[in-house]
Amino acid sequence: MAGLQLGFRLDPATGKAGSDRLTVDSGDLTTHGAILGMTGSGKTGLAIVMLEEALLAGIPCLILDPKGEMGTCCSRSPSSRRRSSVPG
What we know:
The protein is an alpha+beta fold. It has one helix at 43-56; strands spanning 3-10, 17-25.
């Protein structure tokens, strides 16, 4: 199973990113999930990072994106290959 790197752990004293990586084991992603937060809190950014990490680890993903915010996430890296997309 792959470790998906999502960023770095926050230092509780400063509230800033520290040097310890924050990873999630791919085996923990076996069911549905939700990312909840207020406007501007980074939900889309987190979803894009998780998607890119999952694709790099060879984990198949199905993304339903009614707002069209993730249309370019797969084309950001030259090594990623966009297989198909259906506009909403």
